[in-house]
Design brief:
Length: about 60
């Protein structure tokens, strides 16, 4: 889990537009972010394993 202060800081408008960055909406992780789902790879994997993301299933061959 990310620090609460960093999650709040990310919500404020940055001084310059290029300083904007994305964070996971569930845990607040700034890296490994999937724009399409708005969550990080760790949360994506957990939710996909549970079957909570529609249209996504674990690949096996």
């Amino acid at each position: 889990m990310a620090k609460t202060c960093l999650r709040v800081k990310q919500l404020r408008p940055p001084k310059y537009r290029v300083r904007r960055y994305n964070r996971c909406s569930l845990c607040g992780r700034p890296r490994g972010y999937y724009r399409k789902f708005k969550i990080c790879r760790c949360c994506f994997r957990m939710l996909a394993h549970r079957g909570e993301i529609p249209g996504v299933r674990k690949a096996s061959w």
